[in-house]
Amino acid sequence: MQAEITSTKHIPVLATEVMQQLDPKPNDHYLDLTAGYGGHAQLVSAKAGATGNLTLVDRDEQAVEHLKQIFKGKSNVRIMHSDFLSASRELLKENKKFDVILADLGVSSPHLNIAERGFSFSSEGPLDMRMDQRQSKTAADIINHASEAELVGILKKYGEIKHSAKLARILAAGRPYKSTRDLAGRVAEAIPRRKKRTHPATEVFQALRIAVNSELELLEQSLPLWFELLAHKGRIGVISFHSLEDRLVKQAFRDYGGNRYDARLHIVTKRPIVGSDKEIVFNPRARSAKLRVAQRK
Ligand SMILES: C[S@@+](CC[C@H](N)C(=O)[O-])C[C@H]1O[C@@H](n2cnc3c(N)ncnc32)[C@H](O)[C@@H]1O
Predict the structure, then answer these.
(1) Residue 7: pLDDT band by 50, 70, 90 thresholds?
(2) In this predicted structure, what is the pLDDT of residue 8?
(3) Could you write out the DSSP letters of every residue in 189-244?
(4) Best of 131, 132, 242, 291 to mutate for ligand 1, by most ligand atoms within 8 A of CB?
């Protein structure tokens, strides 16, 4: 598996912008809530130095194993195999504070490129899509067993699909689905004509992935905790990859920031920072990345 991961290497997005905006310094305490394959964490580690302190969280076991390899023997690095909501609750209980916090949301390149993980319809794989494989609910459970009404809700809320009711009816009638390609093929038959250039199954796969991993619920509940975990003048950066996530981040920054007398945050990025044309050429994932930054008052 290690060889496969290396061959589908994850390139960190907006790395230059993250470093400029979060500006880690020697001795800083850094919390990476989605440490993944350690791209951002290694850059921060180089700045924070041996006297800095790193707490790295990820709910994916393969990512965690990779992090353990990269930071082997470093006593100033703590690695937590956990979803970021549970990890944040634990860190708050421990009264921890951090100078720099980063959340680079969503999936990693290995998630998309390793067919057995079932995130991508471009290769044949099981309908899995679990970021944390200790979890029991998979995409197959949802697509093959959810009620039609539940499917409508998932397609509408997480895929923002216009004719969700009609599509849910067609998908429910075509059950069971055995693989990623099987489902993608059925969606393509149901939506034969489309103005967008992307495959018709794009939004269906996004919706299922968000539902399987409770992505929006975890993000919404975690954001206030992250603000609590910031030290005085500490900075937080959140990178999102679709509008549903970005909306939650923007709203939470607004709720806790602004000019009110009791505002806890200063919003550093009035508009989100996006990838440069140059970055998008060598890292297509950067195309939809949006970085928002705030500072604890
Ligand atoms: C875009 S990748 C992060 C890549 C990382 N910044 C790097 O440079 O290698 C996102 C990572 O977040 C993890 N992840 C997503 N949602 C999570 C959650 N709720 N809790 C913990 N980890 C999560 C995924 O497993 C994935 O490894």
Answers:
(1) very low
(2) 61
(3) HHS---SSSS-TTHHHHHHHHHHHTTHHHHHHHHHHHHHHHEEEEEEEEEEESSHH
(4) 131
Nearest CA to ligand 1 atom 12: 34
Q: Is any ligand 1 atom within 6 A of the Cβ of residue 237? A: no
- What is the rounded CA–CA span in Å between residue 200 and residue 222? 32
Decide whether any atom of ligand 1 lies within 6 Å of the 40 Cβ.
yes
With a threshold of 0.70, does the pTM exceed it?
yes
Which class for 6: exposed (0-12), middle (13-18), buried (19 or more C-beta within 10 A)?
Answer: exposed
User: Could you give all domains of the chain from N- to C-terminal order, each with its CATH number?
Assistant: 2-110+215-296 (3.40.50.150), 133-212 (1.10.150.170)
Report the separation in Å between the CA atom of 34 and the middle of ligand 1, taken as the mean of its atom positions: 3
CA-closest residue to ligand 1 atom 24: 107
DSSP β-bridge partners for residue 239? 104, 291
